[in-house]
Structures are given as C-alpha cells and as structure tokens.
Specification:
34% of the residues lie in helices and 35% in strands. The protein has helices at residues 11-24, 52-68, 98-115; strands at residues 2-6, 29-36, 45-50, 72-83, 87-95, 118-124, 127-130.
Length: 145
C-alpha cells in the first residue's frame, strides 16, 4: 500500500492507521521509519517530483518481496513542497515477529534512496534548486550508457 500526499505527511494519522492495522492483524512487530526534513544550510525546505507510474512499479516489487516473507509493507511519500522539520517519507514494515520485518528494513530504505523515481530540490528564497549533490543516478534512466 503506497500513498502519495501533496505537501507534508499527516504523520500521526498514518501512524495511528498503520498501527491499528498491525493490532487488527495480531502482528507483534511494527517497524517504522520517518524521514524529516532537517535544517541544512539555508534551505527553507525540500520539494519533490515523483514519476508515479514507475514509482508504483518499484513499490509493487518490494511489496511482493515483503509478502513472500510474510511482512506487510506500508509507505507514504510527499510530492511538492515540505518545509523543514516536517515529514516527507514514512514506511512501516509489520510482521508477526521482529526478525522478518527487520530483515527487510535497511534494504528497503537503501533501495528507496537509490532506485525510487523521486527527484529532490532544495527550497531557497522560494526557488526550487535541484539537489544534485545529494541525488543518485536512477538505473536505466539514461538514453546512453
């Protein structure tokens, strides 16, 4: 289950809903990661562009990996502007026992950072500036190798 929000995430709403799902399914492990826009340099916030069809395909691959290991995967990400100290990214991995959820946790977050089709911009003086120095080349996105 992937959710995309315009602007900052409704963190407490997502947490409450996802935790409720874990309780309803009688799952003992609820591993949550939240990405908060931190104060860095003189940025006012971050802005995100998402290529949604490719993002959904990327997520579906991870959702299947999770299902194969009896893990429930939930994710939310922002598009557009997110001010500093607000959240732009949340993921929950839920399973009956911690081992299954934790085994996917770091790999999922690292692959997201390197492979999800999301482009990040710094917001400075109300302008979006591509954050090239903190970005990764999206595999397969170039015309020529």
């Amino acid at each position: 289950m992937l959710e995309i929000y315009e602007g900052p995430l409704p963190v407490f709403e997502l947490y409450k809903r996802w935790e409720g799902e874990a309780i309803e399914k009688n799952l003992g492990a609820f591993c949550l990661f939240e990405g908060i826009v931190r104060e860095e340099g003189d940025i006012e916030g971050l802005s995100f562009d998402i290529y949604e069809p490719l993002f959904l395909k990327w997520f579906e691959v991870w959702e299947q990996k999770a299902k194969d290991q009896k893990v429930f995967l939930r994710m939310a990400h922002s598009k557009g502007n997110v001010a500093k100290f607000q959240s732009s990214y949340m993921v929950a991995l839920m399973s009956a026992h911690r081992k299954a959820a934790l085994s996917l946790y770091e790999d999922f977050i690292n692959d997201f950072k390197h492979s999800a089709p999301i482009w990040k911009y710094d917001i400075k003086n109300n302008e979006r500036i591509y954050a090239k120095d903190r970005s990764f080349v999206l595999k397969g996105s170039g015309i020529l190798s």
